[in-house]
Structures are given as structure tokens and as C-alpha cells.
Amino acid sequence: MTKKRKINPRLLLLGGLAVLFVVLVIIYFTGGGGERIRHETEPSPGAPPPARGEAPPAKRITLFFLSERDDLLHGEEREVLSGRSASEDIETAVGELLKGPSGDLISPFPPGTRIRQVFLDEDGTAYVDFSREFAENAAFGASSEMAAVYAVVNTVAANQKAVKRVAILIDGGERETLGGHIDLSRPLLPQYSLIAK
Fold first, then answer.
1. Is residue 108 within 8 Å of 118, Cβ to Cβ?
2. Cα–Cα distance, 61 to 159 (Å, whole number)
3. Dist CA 93 CA 90 (whole Å)
4. What is the pLDDT of residue 168?
5. SS3 letters across 34-79
6. CA-based Rg of the chain, rounded to a whole angstrom?
7. pTM of the model
8. What is the mean pLDDT of each run of 10 residues along the chain (197 residues)?
9. At a CB cut-off of 8 Å and minimum separation 6, what does 180 contact?
């Protein structure tokens, strides 16, 4: 006759605790079918929370292009969506400028010109960085260089009250000039005298 082995109550208790621990771990990591915790992303500090289903407000801006009638800049109004910052608004305006006019005006920009980046500092200087095509894809004369430069400067200053001066950069760096006629090594003030009345 074989003897029955007696089970140690301590081992039984430890085994039960181990099984309970494994079950609790499984429930914890699988969520247990209960309510899950949701992590909601918060808007960046200072930014208004986006309203559900509400589009950003539209605003009218004025872009400046050339005309066949004279050497002055002529305004063309366009409706765009407002950005979340002054830099975004400047980038939108310059982006629209590079798309060209919708009417019979003439774009002063060489083909392939793109905007790379925009920055507005606390002193009211807007830095507008263009791709190298702005300087390389055109042979600028004095009047065409003035038109291209001040189409940018006047468009940026006219549409953003915080802007006092505009610095034009090419491919991330300063450039002395586009075609030898206008000094781009320093920020430029708007020249509203170049705009047709």
C-alpha cells in the first residue's frame, strides 16, 4: 500500500499567490475589458483650442505685382485663411505672391522660386528665406530687381502690422544682391512710393 504524500500548505499558498499574480498582471496589461484611460493631446501653450468643425477665419490680403503699363507695383486683393501666428500669415502672403497674379498683372519672380522659411523677430524684422532659384533663374536688370524685391517687402509689410523691415535670404543665408542693384545685406523698409495710386 502506497502512502499518500502530504502537500505542504506553504507551497499551496505560494502557488495560489503566483497564479493570482499572473492573472492580475494579465488583467492590468490587457485592460480587463473595463474603461480605458484616454490620453488627450493638449494644444501648445498660448494657442487657442481649435473649435470642432470650425474653419480658420478668412481675411483679405493685398499682393503686389508688375503691370505692362508702368514700372510700378499694382495691388491685387486675395482672400486667404488666417494663420495661427504672424509668421504663418507672412508665409501665406508670400506663398500667394509666388503663385502669381490671377488677372493681367505680371509676376516679377523667376520660375521655380519657392519660399523656404519665414521668421518674425521681436523688433519687427521679418526674415523671408527663398530657394536659390530666386537669385539664379533670372538675369535681373535694375527695374526688374527692384520690382521683385519690393513686391516681397511691400506685400509683407502691408499685410502684417507688426513688420517694420523685411530681410530677404537666399537658401538660408544672406546675399549681397540679386542682380547687383539692391543691397540685400540688411533688412529693407517698405517703399510705398513704388505702388501705383
1. no
2. 6
3. 5
4. 97
5. CCCCCCCCCCCCCCCCCCCCCCCCEEEEEEEEECCCCCCEEEEEEE
6. 32
7. 0.71
8. 62 72 64 40 41 77 94 95 94 96 92 95 96 86 91 97 96 90 94 93
9. 140, 145
